[in-house]
Structure prediction request, 136 residues.
Amino acid sequence: MTPPRRQRRTPRQATPAQPAAPARKEDEGGNPERLYVVAGPDGERADIDLVTLIVARSPDPPPSATPEQAALLRLCVAPLSVAELSAYLSLPFSVVTVLLTELLTAELVQARSPIVRKALPDRSLLEAVMHGLQRL
Prediction:
């Protein structure tokens, strides 16, 4: 079986260059002005990390909530981590923490810290499991 033959492309006639449109601030990556407006000037933050679970106390946002806060409340009907919220809303972690701080002070959401196990498992139990696996 022979491979298909490729045909060489011929250059098209050059089209006249169109002048480039002036760049707008919205087109620039990130739009930091918008993030400043979303986060507010004070930028206070609660002690929240990426794995903190956030749960909304009520699924319906109040009429005074900003669009970002309303989206957060709708997403938090089921527990979600701050990292997931940041990804779903396409907002940086720092902005999401500021928004969550406002919602926490208004008692619209509840923050649940992840469970940290401080007690080590029983060593004799681990040794019994290890010996049982070695016998298999």
